[in-house]
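Re: beginner question about structure tokens

> Can someone show what the tokenized structure looks like for a real chain? I only ever see the sequence side.

Sure, here's an example I had lying around. Input first:
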Amino acid sequence: MANMARESGNFGMEHIRDQLNQLKTSLKTLSRTINESVEEVNFQMDSVSHILAEYTHDRKMESIGLMAGGVAHDFKNFLHVIGVNAELIRSCAADEKTNRRAGQIVDVCHKTSDLVRHMMEIAKTDERPTQPVDFNGEVRSGIIMLKSALPEGIRLQTDYADHLPRINGDATQICQVVTNLVKNAAEAMEADGRILVSTRAEDLRPADCVLHGNARPGRFAVLRVMDDGPGIPRDVLPRIYDPFFSTKNRGGNSGFGLAIVYTIARRHGGWIDVKSQRGRGTQFSVFFPISEYEST
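And the corresponding structure tokens:
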């Protein structure tokens, strides 16, 4: 009887241990499922935050464009009148002092005209270029124009994809994107550093687009401009495409460079992605849809 009791007790303990092991396994599985669910929720929240940020910025750029378009044309006409009269005064000036001051007015008019031109560029948000463009060719053209204008300490390197399909676009605006991004990178590095300009054709899947509000699946020509400069501070990143915003104290494009790149990308049905880390440089990727004809 004693042996039977011990065996019965041992069986009971083994049963309890089995139940406890099963419970531990179930708890581990449940814990793993909860962690995966939390990660998925966090990922979806990040995705929604990015989409809302893109949507908010698009609406802000539309508002700025409407305002800029409403005043730029009249402002341009006023500047033209001031500039013409200042030129007339300078040509008729009898003394050096009057000539110099009239020349200063003309110079200011020219600089302000550039500002107005930038404002008018941002106002053209609804125009959609449709001409076939040799993407690599226009990027090369922009690089050729830049090489002699960059400081000697800036090393500009290129890496073009072979047989890159055409896009529907505006050749002048593609050059403008290249020049603005490279100039922006050069200014960030002061007078020494490396800039790599590359082109690629990329096929995006739905999973590749969840963290960017303007992204969508399809085939795209991608322009990348990478530098090994100081990087962009995290608190500055949300404002880099805002017109008039600049971290530079010296002269330049008055903060319009990246705003114009953003506007041109959206006008072409594309978008910009930026990655930056303090002390390790910045990478701008601009996506342009490859024309349907080229994709077939």
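Each token stands for a local structural state, so reading them left to right follows the chain. The two ends are 86 Å apart (CA to CA).
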